[in-house]
Structure formats: structure tokens, C-alpha cells
Amino acid sequence: MPDLDALTQRYREAVGGEPEGLWYAPGRVNLIGEHTDYNDGFVLPFALDKKAIIAGGRRDDDQLVIVSLELDDEVRLTVEELAPGSEGWSAYLAGVVWALREAGHDVRGANLVMTSDVPLGAGLSSSAAIECATVAVLCDLYGLDIDPVDRAKLARVAENAYVGAPTGLLDQAASTLCEADHGLFLDCRTLETEQVPLPMAEQGYEMLVLDTKTPHSHVDGEYGTRRASCEQAAAILGIPALRDVTDLDEAIEKLDDPTMVKRVRHVVTENERVLKALEVARSGDLAALAPLLDESHASMRDDYEITVDTVDLAVETAKKAGALGARMTGGGFGGCIIALTHQGDADRIGLAIADAFAGAGFGRPEWFTATPAQGAGRLV
């Protein structure tokens, strides 16, 4: 948990008064369902107990005072200055103000002083945590009655249209909608959800989340290239999105580009794995998730081609050290892996991966055991 006393003190220093409250939103880990969200598919994430927390207060003017404890930085601007394409860390908060105003909500000035213990650039959705926490702050400060799904959509608008990252709804939905001790099954087309129990501790399991310390970014070309390839394939196949592929072999026959074939195969089979994981979670036999995690990683490595050496080594080592199943999680090109382990094994497996990294000349990874947590809300 971030230092709330330090957060409140920094608010006093920046603003000269007390915050009206503290709001939070968690990072998330995606249990399974990678790069399916923008293909109208299925995902199954859960929220982390690591979160972004914002001390907030309403202003009488049109000024935004945005502060980050970790970066020791402060940005001041007016709501009239907000414009898509803005860069820097503050864009994730300012973009939410812009998105709310674009949607017709009368949001004006605000003090937003932020702290976060969600690792940056690790594929755990640190940006969505910031955005969803900001939505929670502004909805309460300005009395906006916006349901949770629409809050997630507004946060995504900030990410897509203001920051310029072409992500789907997965991250913001997980940060907003997840419940403690549950995974969130989300149909990214219909936006129907199901809270799925994940009683890992009760069944003698735990989930290792290991940050390879290989940063990635969604505002780079590779993520956008993957998304464009999927959209092009859907157009060739004459369907709205790859979620609508009903016969993979038939679809492959219609595609001439070998790279596009691999991208389509990943999305179609990953959607199938999410639906299988949903059935497994409903049945309560969480050990049956393990082979699905392994298959997902192989597909991301071989067909979607979004893993890197550190990630692959971490997954391979986790398996050799006794993990039941393991895969990369997040958008790819670095970031984190997850591994389903027997209770008490996660730290040992993390140490084994650290040793393997040292032997390969990689930097030391960081890891923790994840517990499914509650989505965005107000602390005090």
C-alpha cells in the first residue's frame, strides 16, 4: 500500500489545504485472453492489490493541479488547454478530464495528487489504474452518476484518443469492475460480465507475478501493427472482427499472408482458451488452468510474436522449477509473466528465475504473489 500520509502531506504542500478524499483504482493481471479485446473477443483478468491512489479536491477555477509523488513532479494547466496528443505522465489524468468534458459532463478544475505502487511498464496496467482512479475522483467531486462500465469506457477514451495508445477495454474494465477473490470474465463485444470465483488459497495454489524488468509501451509501433493486421484480416474474411471466425481452417485458406495467418490463429485459439478457462473456473478445479496458460504463452511466442528473451526464459524456468503453468501477461514485448504454483512455492520459483536471469546476463527481476482484489473506489 502506498504511503497515504505522504500523499496527504504532498497535497497540502501543492494546494494549501486538505483533500476532499482519497480514491483508488488497482492494476490488473490478465489470467488469460491476450490481444483478444480489440478483436471483440473474451478476456479473464483480475485486479491486483497494487493500486494508484489520488488525493483529490475540487477547484473553483478551471485549473488542473496534477502531482506525482513517485516522479516528484507537478503540472499545472487549464481545462481549455487540454488537447489530444499531449505527452508525459500527466496526460493519463488530464486525458480523463478531457474525456469527461467531451462526453458533455461539466467538469472544471481539480487538484489531483497521485501515488501508485503498480509497476510501470510491466504489463500490469499502471496507466489504466491512474485513469480509473481519476474517473472515480471526478465523478464524486462533481456528482456525476456514471455506471461502472461507462466509467471504464471513459477511461479508455482517455487512453485511446488523448494519450494515443490503441488499447481495448480490458485494462479499464478490470480496474473498475473486478471484485475481490474473483476474476472478471468480459465479453468485449456485448460488455456482458461474470464474476468468477478464484479460490486459489482454498485449493492450495498461489499466483506468482514476476516483472522481468523489460519495459514495454503500448504507444509504440508493434502493438498498433498487430491490431491493424487483425483488422485487415477481418476485412478480407468479410466479418466484423476475428471473434466471428467459426472455422479456423477455412479462414486460413482465404488468407495469403503467412504472418496474417499466424495473427489470426492466435486470436481465434486464445478466445477458445478463455472460454475453456471460464468453464474451469466455474467448475472450481483451478489446476486445470495450467495447460491453458502454457498454450497461451506458446501462441503469443510463436503466432503473435510478442514475447522477448527475458519473458521466454522466465516462463521456461518457472516450469522447470515446478510451476503448474506459466505465461506472459499483458500486451507483450516485455513486462510480466504469471505462474500458477502450489502454495508456498511462488517465492522459490521467483528465486530460480532470478538465478537464471543472472546466468544469462539479464538484470534481476522482481516478483510478488497476487491476490484478486477489489476494483476502483473511494478509500476515505
What is the architecture of the largest domain at the second tier of CATH? Answer: 2-Layer Sandwich
Termini Cα gap: 14 Å
Average pLDDT level: 95
Category from helices, strands and their pairing: alpha+beta
The residue fraction in helices comes out at: 40-55%
Amount of beta strand: 15-25%
Low-confidence stretches: none
Alpha-carbon Rg, integer: 21 Å
Q: Count the helices. How many?
A: 11
**Would you list the SSEs in sequence order as H and E?**
HEEEEHEHHHEEEHHHHHEEHEE
Number of strands: 12
What summary fits the major beta sheet? Answer: 8 strands, mixed
What does this structure look like?
By secondary structure, the chain is α+β, with helices and mostly antiparallel strands. It folds into two domains: 4-196 and 374-378, 2-Layer Sandwich (Ribosomal Protein S5, domain 2); 198-370, Alpha-Beta Plaits (2-Layer Sandwich), CATH 3.30.70. Helices cover 40% and strands 22% of the residues. Strands 1, 2, 3, 4, 5, 6, 7 and 12 form an eight-stranded mixed beta sheet that branches. The protein has a four-stranded antiparallel beta sheet with strand order 9-10-8-11. A hairpin with a 6-residue loop joins strand 9 and strand 10 (336-342). The mean pLDDT is 95.
